[in-house]
Amino acid sequence: MTKYIFVTGGVLSSLGKGITAASVGTLLKHSGFDVGMLKIDPYINVDPGTMSPLEHGEVFVTKDGAETDLDIGNYERFLDASFLKSANFTTGQVYSSVIERERAGGYLGQTIQVIPHIVGEIVNRIKLAGEGHDILVVELGGTVGDIEGLPFMEAIRQMKHDDEVAGTFFIHVTLIPFIKAAGELKSKPTQHSVQELRRIGITPQMIIARSENGLPKTFKKKLAMSCDVHPDCVIEALDAKTIYDIPVTFLRQNILKPISKELELGELNPDMEKWDTLVKRIVQPKEKTVVGFVGKYLELKEAYKSLTESLIHCGAHLDARVEINWVDSEEIEEKGAEALLGDCDSVLVAGGFGSRGVEGKILAIQYARENRVPYLGICLGMQLTLVEYARNVLGLEGANSIEFDENTPHPMIYLIDNFLDQNGGTQLRTHESPMGGTLRLGEYPCDTKDGSIIQNAYNGEKTIYERHRHRYEANPTYREQLEKAGMIVTGESNGLIETVEIEGHPWFLGVQFHPEFTSGLQTPNPSILAFVKASLEAE
Ligand code: GLN
């Protein structure tokens, strides 16, 4: 039977609840347990796939093709594991399945209510996510007191008394503000949010106190008393130099002791040695390289979360700081690529949707190709390498992706009518098919060509597995023409073009998949690692 750790948030959002949950999970995993993770999102959207990355940050894609909250990415990067669809659900999903069952007559005429039906569905989903794991860490999105959060609170309260649950532990993450005028740390907001939790029937057993300043012993004691927890159960979480340092700082405060005591886990000695070495290299690396990161949502870097994190992982493994030079693709259109990318060791064009900034990305690719600068193009960044090559090397005027020009005379990137999905079923994709249902999502195999950059990056692996999130594909009609002129297809997935390289260029790789989704601190993604290496070696 599974034991459950619930992480709730108080006072305000953005306190790093996700990182807290991931850190606790990491320490337990390194103690030898099979740890699962679950993020519950109280919003009504059925999934974050259609939410603006500006508002919501990145959409993270799981191996089995679910579009999930970016916190799932944090879990995977910390725990070095692949989680599935069941690791994230929303209010929208809960209501959809209850309503669907009601329409199908599944409730035999009962009146459907929040309690017991909605709450029951939530409990079932939490248990499903916990199945097969020793411990499931559950992060509840939002803040205590939110109206949307109530059914979830009720569900986790009920789980305390569930015979199918081997144990529960409640962690509350809150803010301890420092009021400058008074020169004091304030515990009142935390007291209020704990009171609110207790009103609902949940008594947190641990307080994780986010604070800019260290908490004096006397203050911790006071906080413990007023929140009704043991003083050992007040853990401080100060601003860290890197998020990957947090598990280690928690461990130093003996965070596992009370958890182990309550959940009867025995004596825990997590092995964090390798982790610690990597963290030290993130904080104080020997070398440095500058990557020109070309994208469009630069106002909100959270939209590229997995990618920026993967650069940190690769840096840690190569003992180098990967400095990102953020370059807005629209600015390239105005000022030219040389002006904005001239000082970079390498160029990275990230994935994206919509036509804004596309021409700037093409200029960046042309610059990297002509100046023999290491280049990695991801998804849209790969598709545009074909467009650039077609226009500037093959001389195919007006070449484009049909995403940006439906009537282009040379559709280098096009929409295929059907393709085999992950389960071997046929998927239809045309301009008319509804958004969302038409993306190629999740993990697919990619067969690599001997001697290619991509195969070398994966240590000679002939078949690699990476995740996808895109609608359009490279058009094979142009393959022969491209290859004759030096752009070689080096990776294929069931006949679809997956990766391209340029003969004679020191390091040029376009990948249709999103390598960043499989990068973890301890297991950096091989394509990105090889790219950063090339960037470091570039003169
Ligand atoms: N817009 C492109 C497509 O849909 C690329 C998507 C992406 O970069 N994730 O195929």
What's the helix and strand layout?
Layout: E1 3-9, H1 17-29, E2 35-41, H2 53-56, E3 60-61, E4 67-68, H3 70-79, E5 88-90, H4 91-103, H5 114-130, E6 135-140, H6 150-158, E7 167-175, E8 178-179, E9 184-185, H7 188-200, E10 206-211, H8 217-227, E11 234-238, H9 246-252, H10 256-263, H11 273-283, E12 287-295, H12 305-318, E13 320-328, H13 329-335, H14 337-341, E14 346-349, H15 358-370, E15 375-378, H16 380-392, E16 400-401, E17 411-414, E18 418-420, E19 426-428, E20 440-448, H17 453-457, E21 463-470, E22 473-474, H18 479-484, E23 487-493, E24 496-502, E25 508-511, H19 526-537
Parallel strand pairs: 1-6, 1-7, 2-5, 2-6, 7-10, 10-11, 12-13, 12-14, 14-15, 15-25, 16-17
Antiparallel strand pairs: 3-4, 8-9, 17-22, 18-19, 20-21, 20-23, 23-24, 24-25
Helix pairs in contact: 1-3, 1-9, 4-5, 5-6, 11-12, 12-19, 13-15, 15-16
Glutamine binds at residues 351-353, 379-380, 403, 469-472.
Salient structural properties:
35% helix, 539 residues, alpha/beta, 9-stranded mixed β-sheet, Rossmann fold, binds glutamine, 2 domains, 7-stranded parallel β-sheet
| Residue runs with pLDDT of under 50 for 5 or more positions | none
Number of domains: 2
CATH class categorisation of the largest domain: Alpha Beta
* Basic shape: globular
Radius of gyration: 25 Å
Share of residues in strands = 15-25%
Tally of DSSP helical segments: 19
SSE-based structural type: alpha/beta
**Ligands, ions, cofactors:** glutamine
CATH superfamily of the largest domain: P-loop containing nucleotide triphosphate hydrolases
Write down the CATH topology of the largest domain.
Rossmann fold
Helix proportion range: 25-40%
What does the average pLDDT come to? Answer: 92
